[in-house]
Amino acid sequence: MIPKEILKKIRKIQITTSRMVSNTFAGKYHSVFKGRGMEFHEVREYLPGDEIRTIDWNVTARTGHPFIKKFIEERELTVMLLLDMSGSAFFGSSNQLKVQLAAELCSVLAFSAIQNNDKVGLIIFTDRIEKFIPSRKGLRHVLRVIREALYFKPQGKGTDINLALDYLSHLTKRKTISFLISDFLAKDFKASLAIANRRHDIVGVTITDPREIELDDIGIVRFSDKETNQERVVDTGSSTFRKNYKIKAQERIKARTTLFRSLGVDSIDIYTDKPYEKELVKFFKLRESRLR
Fold first, then answer.
1. How is residue 236 annotated by DSSP?
2. Could you give all domains of the chain from N- to C-terminal order, each with its CATH number?
3. Phi, psi of 13, deg, nearest 5
4. What is the distance between the alpha carbons of residues 84 and 256, in angstroms, rounded to a whole number?
5. The model's pTM
């Protein structure tokens, strides 16, 4: 039995995001993410009137009789949401934690998908695969995805993006639209990302808190790494420390952007202190312009 306060939160997310999808994203999603086109269905014997270009010459040579390949139009897509729930996702200095914003994004993307009659699945990961929900259609299924994204309690604290991408690559041979939602505070996942992006359409969605880029002068502060439990005391009153902190953050962002571009991976940058709607619209417009 789901507690009433959880049902209330899910219902609130449902109302907010479904309205947003209907008013803003549904049409854009449909124009950007289309079906796979013509999908192989079966081989059958050639009949008078069939197009010669559809003949399967291998089967024809093997049987001694002409056979053709039959195709059907495939419009259905599968959307996979890869959600990072490592320790750093449970940080927030603004209105909400990064993981809460990530859950809301999952809701928007899931509702956009089912309005387009697509299937949606969810992979929650840390330094292990925490939860897998197979892709399905329907409102009831999407509400389950939202519930898990909002309230799942992970066992791990670390981040293993390689593991999540490898899991996706072995999960299905069919192409998916996969949104990798993380703060990307991890290293050495280029090879796995390249392999996954060759089979799937990967979109990197980065969730960032403003304090991860720039610090205010708030005196002596004890920092705690939520993934390693290591602590460090720093003096934010030091202008040199704040400057170096910002430089390192900018270098990290630049390296991530360069990585995505080098592999042809589309990306969306979301910040916990800013509305995310504009960034999603910007992403959809960019994808749409490339399809023209």
1. T
2. 4-33+75-291 (3.40.50.410), 37-74 (no CATH)
3. -60, -45
4. 16
5. 0.81
